[in-house]
Write a structure and sequence with these properties.
The protein has 713 residues and is of the alpha/beta class. 30% of the residues lie in helices and 18% in strands. The strands form eight sheets. Strands 5-4-19-18-17-6-7 form a seven-stranded mixed β-sheet, covered by helices on one side. It has a six-stranded mixed barrel with strand order 24-28-25-27-26-29. A four-stranded parallel β-sheet has the order 11-10-9-13.
Length: 713
């Protein structure tokens, strides 16, 4: 076979000059292994790494688009200094040294004038460099370290901690029944779908909960298709059946729980028929699901990182869901929901590490109150970061102290409810630095833009829950003058916090320090380019609470949370209607009769991260709202007809995607489209009062046919 044919077929070898190098994809959080085919420093092909225990050689549509992601014309190639008005996109290239000096002098000046707390440090996606940025923030003296987890994931952690004092992870390899609550694994993190398929092949029963018809709901033994925002009522209805039919774990409840009698009394108000009236799930289906879950030899709840808490009643809803774990004795039991300590950016491995000590280089008591501490005190007492959703309010008001600068990494102002309100806040900052791969709409608001690398162009540690670790080296040169996020943080640290001797030792030395209690060193992981299982580590036992109790104030699982009680909040997982709903605001529902839920995944997108990638964008070129055929017919809306999606706050122009994916009375809008930003439809203060999380997934709206059908102008 000729060399020309071999090169065209991208066959690796000495004859073609194509080499296969190991790396990972970090477009989403699955962190799939990548075999990068590289020729003359250019990426020519990607395939999945067969050795990776999570992705097992597979790639989703996002990972398969890696070449277009990396080589996108919107990549930022050099540090940029703004020369025009904010948002104009007018910048001039500057050197890294000049960028660092300008940033260091600007942040130091503001620190001296207004205190370190007036400088905020924010990170969006991905998460791999977060321990380094948080340490930079605290060593600088600022308590105001924020992440996108201020609207994603951490509220579920908070709800779990209020009940159990710890985070829980599903033991899917051992379970006999999966209660999948509002998580669409095939779309959100594709490799996780294999776990469900493997479970089904073993005869594991699947109960799927959620208003949308998904791949999993089609495969489920039972689908509980509830009205958005009513998860708490459904969980209480399931508990009613479990208690009434004596299916709960009496030994666990009597010996290891607090407040069961109050909980039992409360769930009496949620018999199946009443629960049906609230949720829309038939009473007989509720009974059937409760019996299957509670009667299984073991049962595991899979929790979405955000769907159940993106409501104005989110924390209590999620507490009601996770209370089912203890009620049935599936807490830290084989096949139930396990307690597995996290070791590195929320990866449950059980490895001993000093990540928390590394991040928290200065005690909270030595710093000013965090942003959001006045509005969401429980969040700030339980979570080790400020509450990002409160940030635009403090920027705008200047109270209790001014916020004047932001050092940001992958900031997307469209993450916030009322995203235009957050944009206004960024425009008011004295100094704004954004680090990103692309010239995003948020980056256009910055004073300085720094170019970061993709996962193909940098060194990093990645850990997986099966106790598998990968250290990747760059497989291609950085695009332009882009740099690793950690290298950027370390270069700024040398100028801003030269007293932090540990951080200044560099990335590998810091990671060695973090994992010293486990005896893990980066040099050992480096010997395995595709990654390796971490061996000679003690197994993680089940039912650890029997010897150590629970890390709650009572030392038990708390049906009645003492933390909430002491804060003057109902300690039971009470159900309240969403702040906007057909039941809570019937007058508003006359004008806005449909329920809007936003943010459900599409398989080719990850938030807004793939819009600029042609392969992904061609699968949905226009912003679309999912609407049931019944609701579309009632409004005379044709397939892909242009409509106005309106809420009491705002309206956007989108196309109608007529589909049974959503039930009658519900519409779904994917988020983050620049031309039709769903988050502008939501009031900036439409929040859960406990966590501060936005009510992205249950508010009222109307869909109106546009008569001229003239396009999205």
């Amino acid at each position: 076979m000729s060399r020309e044919i071999l090169v065209k077929a991208k066959i690796p070898g000495a004859e073609t000059g194509i080499e296969v190098k190991k790396t990972i994809c970090l477009i989403c959080g699955a962190q799939c292994g990548i075999d990068a085919y590289v020729k003359d420093g250019s990426l020519v092909k990607v395939e999945g790494t067969a050795e990776n225990p999570v992705s097992r050689g597979t790639l989703c549509s996002k990972g398969a688009s890696s070449r277009q992601w990396i080589n996108n014309p919107e990549r930022v190639h050099t540090p940029l200094l703004r020369t025009g008005p904010r948002g104009s996109g007018r910048f001039m290239p500057i050197s890294w040294d000049e960028a660092f000096e300008r940033i260091a002098s600007g942040l130091t000046k503001i620190k001296e004038e207004s205190g370190p707390e007036s400088v905020v440090f924010f990170t969006g996606y991905p998460k791999w460099y977060r321990p380094f940025l948080k340490r930079l923030a605290h060593s600088f003296g600022s308590p105001n370290y924020f992440t996108e987890s201020g609207t994603c994931f951490l509220a579920t952690v908070m709800a779990n901690h209020l009940t159990y004092g710890t985070t829980l992870w599903p033991d899917l390899k051992e379970t006999k029944c999966i209660l999948n609550w509002c998580r669409n694994a095939p779309y959100s993190q594709a490799p996780g779908y294999a776990t469900y398929l493997n479970a089904a092949s073993r005869g594991v029963k699947l109960i799927d909960v959620g208003p949308l018809s998904t791949t999993l709901s089609a495969q489920a033994d039972i689908h509980l298709r509830l009205r958005p925002g009513t998860s708490g009522a459904l969980a209480l209805g399931l508990a009613h059946v479990i208690i009434e039919e004596n299916l709960y774990d009496r030994e666990f409840v009597e010996n290891w729980t607090l407040g069961f009698e109050e909980y039992r009394s409360y769930v009496q108000g949620f018999p199946p028929k009443t629960t049906e009236e609230i949720t829309g799930v038939p009473a007989e289906t509720i009974v059937k699901a409760a019996r299957l879950y509670a009667s299984s030899e073991s049962a595991s709840i899979v929790q979405s990182p955000s769907v159940t808490v993106h409501h104005t009643n989110g924390i209590q809803n999620h507490r009601a869901i996770t209370a089912l774990i203890g009620l049935t004795g599936n807490f830290d039991r084989k096949g139930g929901n396990r307690v597995i300590p996290e070791s590195y950016y929320h990866t449950p491995t059980g490895l001993k590490s000093r990540e928390a000590e590394f991040e928290q280089s200065r005690p909270w008591e030595e710093m000013a109150p965090r942003v959001g501490q006045d509005r969401y005190p429980l969040w700030c007492s339980m979570m080790d970061e400020a509450q990002a959703t409160a940030l635009p309010f403090q920027i705008q008001s200047g109270k209790p102290y001014p916020i004047r600068a932001m050092l940001g990494f992958a900031v997307n102002y469209r993450m916030w409810p009322g995203s235009d309100f957050m944009k206004e806040g960024l425009e008011k900052l004295d100094f704004f630095v954004d680090t990103d791969l692309f010239m995003t709409d948020t980056a256009k608001l910055a004073d300085i833009v720094l170019p970061s690398c993709s996962s193909f162009e940098r060194r990093q540690l990645t850990m997986y829950s099966p106790r598998y670790a990968v250290w990747t080296e760059p497989v291609i040169p950085p695009v332009g003058e882009s740099r690793s996020d950690v290298d950027i943080i370390l270069d700024l640290a040398r100028r801003l916090i030269p007293h932090d001797s540990l951080l200044l030792q560099g990335q590998e030395a810091c990671l060695d320090w973090i994992f010293e209690p486990s005896g893990i060193k980066m040099d050992d992981i480096k010997k395995h380019p595709a990654g390796c299982f971490l061996e000679n580590l003690p197994p993680i036992p089940y039912e650890k609470y029997r010897t150590s109790g629970f890390p709650t104030p009572s030392g038990k699982m708390e049906f009645t949370s003492l933390v909430l009680k002491n804060a003057g909040i109902d300690p039971l997982p009470v159900y309240r209607e969403p702040a906007q709903s057909p039941l809570s605001t019937p007058d508003l529902a006359k004008e806005y009769p449909l329920i809007l839920t936003t943010g459900a995944r599409l398989p080719m997108f990850m938030h807004s991260r793939m819009y600029r990638v042609p392969w992904a964008r061609n699968l949905r070129r226009d912003p679309m709202v999912d609407i049931n055929p019944r609701d579309a017919r009632a409004r005379g809306i044709p397939p892909e007809g242009w409509v106005m999606l309106a809420t009491p706050r705002e309206s956007i122009r989108v196309k109608a995607n007529i589909t049974e994916f959503v039930p009658p009375g519900v519409v779904n809008m994917y988020h983050g489209f620049p031309s039709a930003d769903a988050n502008t439809l939501i009031d900036p203060d439409y929040r859960d009062p406990i966590s501060g999380y936005p009510g992205f997934k249950s508010l009222l709206c109307q869909v109106i046919k546009i008569q001229d059908n003239g396009g999205n102008k």
